[in-house]
Write a structure and sequence with these properties.
3-stranded antiparallel sheet, DUF6462
Length: about 100
């Protein structure tokens, strides 16, 4: 049996092509699915940040602007898992007390 190997440049080409196809604008119905946000909240947040475009009854959301806005709400992990604080966190907490 002869094995066929794919050229490593092919996956890179696919990635570059996907970036080109990445939609810059989403209709609000698509954005509701992508971001899992209700219609009212989505329109409110997009309008607040200036990512909302209205043209003749069509509402579009600029994905780059909206993604950057949502990144402001990202919370970093605090080391708290299912069991509570990590050992290092408990130790630091005990040292403070």
């Amino acid at each position: 049996m002869e094995q066929e190997y794919q050229d490593i440049t092919r996956p890179r080409e696919v990635q570059e092509e996907m970036k080109k196809l990445w939609k810059k604008f989403l209709r609000y119905q698509e954005a509701e699915v992508v971001y899992s946000i209700s219609h009212r909240k989505l329109i409110e947040l997009a309008d607040r940040e200036g990512a909302l475009y209205r043209m003749e009854g069509t509402v579009l959301i600029n994905r780059d602007i909206f993604d950057a806005y949502l990144d402001n709400f990202h919370e970093k992990t605090k080391g708290i898992g299912k069991r509570g604080l990590s050992k290092a966190e408990r130790k630091r907490k005990e040292e403070k007390n």
